[in-house]
Amino acid sequence: MNEVRAENVETPQSSLYQIGGVAALICALMYVFTLGVYVSAYRASPPPASVLEWFTLFQTNPLTGLFLLGIADVVIMILWGPLALAIYDALKQSGKTWARIAVLFVIVGMAVYLATNTAFSMLSLSRKYAVALTEVEKTAILAAGQALVSVSEGTGGQYTGMPLVWLAGLILSVIMLSNKAFSKATALAGILGFGLLVASMPFAGYTTTGSTSAVESVIIAVTYIGGGLLSLVWYILVGLKLLKPGKIEGKTYPQQS
Description:
Strand content: under 5%
Order of helices and strands: EHHHHHHHHHHE
Largest sheet: 2 strands, antiparallel
Distance between the termini: 6 Å
Structural class: mainly alpha
Mean pLDDT: 84
Number of domains: 1
Number of helices: 10
Radius of gyration: 21 Å
């Protein structure tokens, strides 16, 4: 009787790993694409400082407006669903309880972030403002827009939902240290990357609602940018590993002779 390597046999488990791998690599692509949009946008002009400036940006360049308000994070949060399930399945033998907690954090974080992201709401309001005929209508729309700005700057899902997903990534990366499915380099990239991103939140890693000192600005740059780059590496390494499910499962299957 011959044996077939696990990577050559399609199973529900290997399919889950492959879906998770694709999700991880798309997350990496979203990081790179977002960076390009940010660099281009900030070179062109400072970020919007008022509701009216946001409306103007959405009317002239809606894609940039959506990215500045986190549309890429919406995609990443959705992709974390299959990604977390795939990683959980690969790690459950090493730390099932903590892996379950990480998946729970992902579910809660996804729900909070997706419910509070303001990108499409701001786009809709900008269109309504553009066709408003009276000052009363414009004033009401501006007030609604200001409420959305307040959400995105201080009380939105980026300060609750996103950190929960980062914390989940940190937990999963710690478990990877004692699991042979993923390399030590992958685990360390995740621990440092997601650890820095979590650490950035007390210093307003996403947005700042007021002035910051030079020290705070340096901390924000190191934690948020450094964490983002390391987590990008983590997404790539995890994605490539998950796309080779046989190396995770470490099994062979009997072949009928």
